[in-house]
Amino acid sequence: MQSMLNFLKTVRRKRVVILIHSLADLDAVGSALALQSFLRNSSVIASDLPTAKARKLLKFLKSEVSVGGQLDCDVLFILDTNSYDMLGNLADGVRNFKGEKVIIDHHSIHSDSIKADHLVVDNRYLSTSELIYELLKKLKCKILEREALCLLCGIIDDSAGFRNANRKTFSNIANLLGKTRMSYDDVLRFVRTDADVSQRLALLTACKRAEVEKVGGYLVAKSTVGSFESKAAEALVEIGADISFVGCRGKDGARISARMRDDLAKKLRINLATQVMEKVGRILNGSGGGHACAAGAAGSDIERFDEAMSECLRLTRQMLERK
Ligand SMILES: [Mn+2]
């Protein structure tokens, strides 16, 4: 943390690009915009359009994230990911980037993580926004209403309805709310958007197709959808599964999302990212990672999609039977 603070002070006026991951969520966009308030000569870019929720925040703030483009800068910041896989078609640009690379992220270190000159990667934080907030506070950077809203959106959205929140998260939220005239409810308007029809249809399809297995008293569900696989995996846990895997096979690649009830990570000492999805990612000729209770895998080998889905179940059975 201290070395990152010292470093940030030295690059304040340098030409900076803040790169965020593909399908940038509120945490990625929120943390990038907040950091931008400190790095005066910076722009935010991504390989593709941010999610609908993040675009709503950008529109409200009359701000934007450039899609694609050159990494033309002295210092490259990468936020909310430490994996090349999440950078879309900008991954090669990052690999070949000659200037200084910096990563600030709250995901566990990826097996193929981006080599950076400076990094704070700490999975004890629930969001990158919270990490950025702590850095900005320590830098004595004045946080205006705009940045407060960005950070609030990022922190609240990534806290999964506060199920994973700790004492510090709540105090950070209270402090940030004090910096804006918005009420908590006003902020929630950005975080909670009504799901569109296609998303609701995907979740209902996931339920309809779900195969549920009882392993050692736990319910493990697997299903497939055409999109929104992470939302669908979340939905299956919400309605009763202890662990869920939802896959989505596209034309050029396949993705699988995994979710587990939060209390089970500690109770069973299971980590879906390292014990399941990293291995499953390799089957798909890609990679996997994430958190203990929320993980995913993606890769290009769509022929092995069914095998990858079965492997999720097999590894889970193995873990649960050992308990
Ligand atoms: Mn995040």
Automatic annotation (TrEMBL):
<dbReference type="GO" id="GO:0003676">
    <property type="term" value="F:nucleic acid binding"/>
</dbReference>
<feature type="domain" description="DHHA1">
    <location>
        <begin position="239"/>
        <end position="310"/>
    </location>
</feature>
<protein>
    <submittedName>
        <fullName>Uncharacterized protein</fullName>
    </submittedName>
</protein>
<dbReference type="InterPro" id="IPR038763">
    <property type="entry name" value="DHH_sf"/>
</dbReference>
<dbReference type="Pfam" id="PF01368">
    <property type="entry name" value="DHH"/>
</dbReference>
<dbReference type="InterPro" id="IPR051319">
    <property type="entry name" value="Oligoribo/pAp-PDE_c-di-AMP_PDE"/>
</dbReference>
<feature type="domain" description="DDH">
    <location>
        <begin position="15"/>
        <end position="155"/>
    </location>
</feature>
<dbReference type="InterPro" id="IPR003156">
    <property type="entry name" value="DHHA1_dom"/>
</dbReference>
<dbReference type="InterPro" id="IPR001667">
    <property type="entry name" value="DDH_dom"/>
</dbReference>
<dbReference type="Pfam" id="PF02272">
    <property type="entry name" value="DHHA1"/>
</dbReference>
